[in-house]
Amino acid sequence: MKRRVYIQAASQISIQEPLSESWMKAPVICSEPFAKAVDPPFSQYFAPNQMRRSTGYLKRALAVSLEVLRRCNIEHPEAIITGTSFGSLERTNGFLSQVCANKEEALSPMFFMQAIHNAVSTTIAIATQTKSYNTTYSHSRMSFDAALLDGSMQMQLGNISNALVGGHEDTSAIHFELLKKCGYVGVKGMAPYADISVAMMLSAEEDQQNLCELAGVRLLNNPPDEKVKEVTEKMLEEAQIESIEAVMTGANGNPANDAPYFEMAERLFKNKPLLTYKNLFGENFAASASGVYAAAHKIKQETMGSIMVINRTEKNEVSLTLLKRL
Amino acid sequence: MRKPVYITGAGVISAIGVGKEETLSALLNKRSGVGSMKYLTSRHREIPVGEVKRSNAELIQMAGLKENPLTSRTVLMGIVALKEALSEAGIKSEDLDNVHLISSTIVGGMDKRELFFENESSCDREHALAAVRNCGTSTEEIASYFGPFASLSTVSTACSSATNALISASFMIESNMADIVVAGGAECLSIFHLNGFNSLMILDSRPCRPFDKERAGLNLGEGAAYLVLESEASVRRRGVRPLCRLAGYGNACDAFHETASSPNGDGAFLAMQKALEKAQLTPKDIDYINAHGTATQNNDESESAAIKRLFNDTIPPLSSTKSYTGHTTGASGGVEAVISLLALENQFLPASLNWKTPMDGGIVPVTEIHSKGEIKNIMSNAFGFGGNDSSIILSKV
Q1: What is the pLDDT of residues B35-76, one digit of tens each?
Q2: Which of B5, B142, B157, B166 to mutate to test the interface with A (most CBs of A within 10 A)?
Q3: How would CATH label the architecture of A213-324?
Q4: Which of residues 127-156 of A touch B (CB under 8 A)?
Q5: Which residues contact B296 (CB under 8 A, 6 or more apart)?
Q6: What's the ipTM?
Q7: Of A204, B45, B162, B174, which cross-links B185 as Cys (Cβ 3.0–4.6 Å)?
C-alpha cells in the first residue's frame, strides 16, 4: 500500500505580495524584463543583527521557510531539503570579482561561505536548531523537483513524517545579461526574470487543513512520448485518479521555451486546460517551485480535482508532479 | 525491513591514480598524490595540492572527445570515472534508459568561467552558456557522453555532496523508483575553490597531517568517483556479482555554524548513529572507519569527539585517506567510498600518512595496512560546511 503524502502548507516571496495568496484574486502584473522580489518585513521573522551579513536571497529563503513552519506549528522539521540552481549569485559573483580584482589576495571568506549552494539549508537549520536530515539539490531547472522527489521518497519509505522543501533562486544584473544572451530571459513579451523563494511542508498526516495530496513526482531524461504516457498512467493509477483535470506548464511567453510544452500537451494531454504560473511569479531556474505552490493553492481554493505540473529543461529533462484534491 | 542495495561497479580518478587498480596500488604502497601545483594556474603556487596527474588535453584524449577549450575538467574527470563504473557493472549504452544518474559537485564548471570572468560582459553566446553553468550542468555534460540515462539529478551540499548523492540513490532503489542508480561526484581544482578555502585559512603549506597534534589544515585535491547501486531483483536478473552492500547511511545537521563543526561533533555523531541503525549494526561490528579527517584543527577535533562518543572504548581502526588524495571536496564522498570498497575487496587498512604525534585525547589513526581480523563492515564519513554530516556503511556480501 502506497503511503500518502500531503502538502500541508506552502508560501512564497516573489514579485507578488509576499507570504500571501492575494495573487489569486488580485495579481500583480509586471511587464519589466527583470524584476526583484517584494521583500516582506523581515523583522517579523528574525532579528536584524541575526542576518546582518546575509543577502536578500538568504533572508527571503529563511523568512518564507519560517512562515511555513509557523503555519504548520512545527518547530523542527524532520528534513530540510532545498533546490537551488545557482545559490547566492551575489556572493558567487562577488567572490569571483574579488579573486580577479585583488589577484587572489585579501578575499572575503564570508563571500565564499555564502556562495556554497547549501547555505540556505544550513541557515534554516541553524535558525531553527534542527539537526535532522539536511540536503540540497542543484540541478538546473530541476533543482526543486529533485528536492520534492527526495522528500516524497523518504515519506514513502517511512523515514520521516514531514519535510520542509524549498525552491530558492537569486537574480542578478550580471546573470540577466548572460541569460538573455543565451535566449532564456528578456525575450519580448515573456515573463520577467525574477527572484523566487518558495517553501512548503510535506506531511504524512491526513488533515482537512492540508492544501492537497502530493500524489507523485517523477524525473525523466529525454523521454519519448510512450515513456511519458506510461509514467503518467502509472502515477494516475497509484493516485486512484481517472483522468487529470488540468495541466500546469512552464510556458513563459518565450516561443522557444513554450513550443515544446504546447506540443507535448497536444500529444499527451489533449483537450486538458493548460494553466500557467510564470506570468505571475516570473522566470528563473527554481520557477517550478512556484508552479507546484500555485497548483496546490488552486486545488485548495478553486474546486479543481487534480493538476499535473510539468516542468522541462532546454535539454529535455522532464518532471511530472501530480497534485490531487483531498 | 529495508530493501537491500548492492554495489555492482565503481570507478575513480584522483591524485593517486586513474582507475581502481592504480588507486589500490598507491594505497598498498603508501604513495601520496599530494605535491606541487602543476596544472592549476593559481598565483598561490606554494600551496600543495592533490592534482590528477593528467592535463585536460590528456583527459580529452582518454575520453576520445573533441577538443573544446570550454569543457570543464570536472566533466572530463567525471567521464573517466563513470566509464569505469559502468564497465565494471557490465552496463552498456543500450541499457542506460533503465539507469539513473545522481552526481554531485560544489563549483562544477567554475574552472572555465573564472578564466574569462573579467571579459564576461562582452562575451559571445557560447561563453554566456558556459558562464551560467550550474552544478547540474556538469552532470548533464557527463551524462551526455554516455547516452540517455533514465533521469539525472545533482546534489550540492559542500564536502558531503557525493555521500549525499549515494544516500539519495539508495532512496530511489528502496522506494522502487529505480533498479539501477549510478551515484557519486566530480570536482576539479579551480582558482575559485582554492582561494575560497585559502580565505578561510585552512590550507596547510605542507602535506596534510590528519589526526596529528601538529596538523595545520587541509590540502585541496580533485577527482571523481561513481558507484553503481542496484536492487536485488536487478542483480539477479542481470546475473551480476555484487561487490558489496550499501548497508546503511545517515545524514544529520550539526546546526552550529556556517563552516565550523561543533566541539562535541553532534551532527557527526547523529549521522554515524543513524547509519549504524539503518544497517542494523552495533559499533563493535565496524572494522574500519574511513574518517572525514581533513586535518583542519576543527574537523579532526570534532570528529574525534563524535567517534569517541559513539564507539566508547572500542574504536575500530581508523584513517583519513585525504593524506593520499587531498580533500576532493564535492567528489570526496565518492572517492572515499571507492577506497573503502577497495579495502573491503582486498582486505587491507588504508594507512594514514604523515601522522606522528597523537592529539590531546584524540584518536590514533592506523599506520599499517595489515588488518588483524576480517574486514566485514566499513564506515565512511563525509562532513560539509554548514555541519552537513553524512556517514555510510559498506558491508561484505
Answers
A1: 999 999 999 999 999 999 999 999 999 999 999 999 999 999
A2: B157
A3: 3-Layer(aba) Sandwich (3.40)
A4: 128-140, 142-143, 146, 149-150, 153-154, 156
A5: B202, B215, B217, B218
A6: 0.98
A7: B162
